[in-house]
């Protein structure tokens, strides 16, 4: 019986053509009618309750179809088009993105041996001294650091040297310790000594007997550690004694910082 009622209700729902005005009038009449009080107790038998429930379900189904047919379809979704330009947006950084570390530089390590370039560094005017065919100038190497330094003596001779003694004195200004020396002439041509002499470290080159230095530019360099900080070379000095075909010559001078 229930299945038969359900079939009839579905058939009626499919064949129903909703009438909007008529439905509104029916709703208005229902709202205006006086509600009927329900009698206490069970007044209906079980089959009647089932029938009434099925009928109510059918009415709700029909009403649902009617309402669905009367409600207008929602408007189509509107797509917002944002114009694009060729200009790139300003760069921004997310709070969670890592901050690139700042660029840092490391100073070039100090040279502890012969400079790569054979050209001596420029020196202030007035530092060069001369005697006959010889001239010389002393400078502190620009690659020196707050712990280490190199003092360089540039010796030029316009004539061959048959005898030569070069002596460099580095004043003990605190923590001065010899670390080495070098020269441009052949090492076998010189007797080289280094010693601590009271208030200075003394470096000495002596041309061996029977050897001759050609007329050319010669370089003699001394290297040493010193107390941390800027070291002044005002008290450092050099002495050159040389013999050429025209006689003996002597040069004396100091070292300046370029």
From TrEMBL:
Keyword Transmembrane on entry: yes
Tagged with keyword Transmembrane: yes
Compositionally skewed regions (Low complexity) per UniProt: 78-89, 105-120
Keywords: Membrane, Transmembrane, Transmembrane helix
TM helices/strands, residue ranges: 49-71
Disordered, as annotated region: 1-20, 78-138
Protein name in the entry: Uncharacterized protein
Protein species of origin: Amycolatopsis tolypomycina
């Amino acid at each position: 019986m229930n299945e038969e009622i359900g079939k009839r209700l579905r058939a009626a729902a499919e064949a129903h053509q909703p009438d909007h005005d008529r439905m509104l009038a029916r709703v208005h009449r229902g709202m205006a009618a006086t509600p009927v009080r329900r009698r206490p107790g069970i007044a209906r038998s079980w089959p009647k309750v089932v029938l009434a429930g099925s009928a109510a379900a059918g009415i709700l189904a029909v009403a649902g179809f009617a309402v669905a047919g009367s409600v207008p379809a929602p408007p189509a979704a509107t797509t917002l088009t944002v114009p694009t330009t060729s200009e790139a947006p300003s760069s921004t950084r997310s709070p969670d993105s890592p901050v690139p570390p700042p660029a840092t530089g490391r100073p070039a390590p100090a040279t502890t041996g012969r400079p790569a370039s054979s050209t001596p560094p420029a020196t202030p005017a007035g530092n060069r001294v001369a005697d006959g065919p010889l001239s010389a100038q002393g400078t502190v190497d620009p690659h020196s650091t707050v712990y280490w330094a190199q003092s360089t003596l540039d010796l030029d001779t316009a004539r061959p040297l048959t005898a030569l003694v070069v002596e460099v004195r580095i004043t003990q200004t605190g923590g001065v310790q010899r670390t080495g020396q070098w020269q441009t002439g052949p090492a076998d041509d010189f007797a080289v000594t280094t010693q601590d002499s009271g208030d200075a470290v003394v470096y000495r080159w002596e041309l061996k007997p029977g050897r001759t230095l050609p007329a050319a530019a010669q370089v003699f360099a001394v290297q040493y550690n010193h107390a941390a900080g800027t070291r002044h070379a005002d008290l450092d000095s050099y002495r050159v004694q040389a013999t050429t075909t025209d006689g003996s010559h002597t040069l004396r001078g100091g070292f300046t910082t370029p």
